[in-house]
Design brief:
alpha+beta, 6-stranded antiparallel β-sheet, 5-stranded antiparallel β-sheet, globular
């Protein structure tokens, strides 16, 4: 009788351990974001030089990121493992180049391979609407994180930094010298964003919890989003 009781405890213990292992696996979540440099150091301390070369990021599977180009001569966007750099050519034209041969004074990036898709309701139109909706949908999610929007905008304003060579920077006003704005209308776009309530001045501006870069479907226009009016888009959040 004692022998059967002992065997019973051993069997229970084995299955109990397996049950715990399965529970631990269910807690798997998306990657932490990586932050190099800080926006405030660029704006206030004039630290314009590169703190990261993008070609040193070896794992590019599901890679997403954004930041400015070193010395504020362009904008950087990484969308699903492909890096883009946009630069000003005139007050109405730009170049958009696919390359990892570029550096940034600050960069936020992460890896996401699985997304949850959410259709945006018709009342979500602006950057503030996007921030509020993303905040509401991720109250119980790990933060900070990347997200993306895909669809059509009726209009948007994006900018590209174009700081004159040799310019010294000690304030946001000085940092934005040469910045060129571009107006978009009725475009199919992808917007990559990063959300955080704890990184103002690091990778979001002092008055926002999100930082957004946009690229058109034909990849001819890309830049930092200042204003947007959404026509119809879907939101993608990383799978928990």
């Amino acid at each position: 009788m004692i022998k059967y009781i002992i065997i019973g405890f051993l069997v229970f213990g084995i299955f109990g351990c397996n049950s715990n292992l399965k529970k631990d696996n269910s807690n798997h979540t998306y990657h932490d974001i990586q932050i190099v440099g800080a926006m405030k150091n660029v704006m206030w301390k004039g630290e314009l030089q590169g703190t990261i070369n993008l070609d040193t990021i070896s794992n590019r599977t599901g890679l997403y990121g954004l930041g400015p180009e070193s010395y504020l001569t362009g904008e950087i966007l990484i969308n699903n493992g492909q890096s883009y750099v946009s630069r000003v050519t005139s007050d109405s034209t730009m170049t958009v180049k696919k390359t990892f041969d570029v550096s940034a004074p600050f960069l936020v990036y992460t890896h996401v391979t699985e997304w949850n898709e959410i259709a945006l309701t018709s009342n979500i139109k602006t950057i503030q609407d996007i921030e509020n909706f993303v905040d509401e949908k991720t109250v119980n999610s790990k933060r900070p994180f990347a997200f993306k929007l895909i669809g059509k905008i009726s209009e948007a304003t994006i900018h590209i930094q174009n700081l004159p060579e040799g310019t010294k920077v000690s304030s946001p006003k000085e940092a934005h010298q040469g910045q060129t704005d571009y107006q978009l209308k009725n475009e199919e776009v992808t917007i990559i964003g990063f959300f955080s309530t704890e990184h103002k001045g690091i990778f979001t501006h002092h008055d926002s919890n999100i930082h957004l870069h946009l690229i058109t479907k034909d990849e001819s226009k890309m830049g930092h989003v200042d204003e947007v009016n959404i026509e119809e888009m879907k939101l993608f959040l990383p799978v928990k």
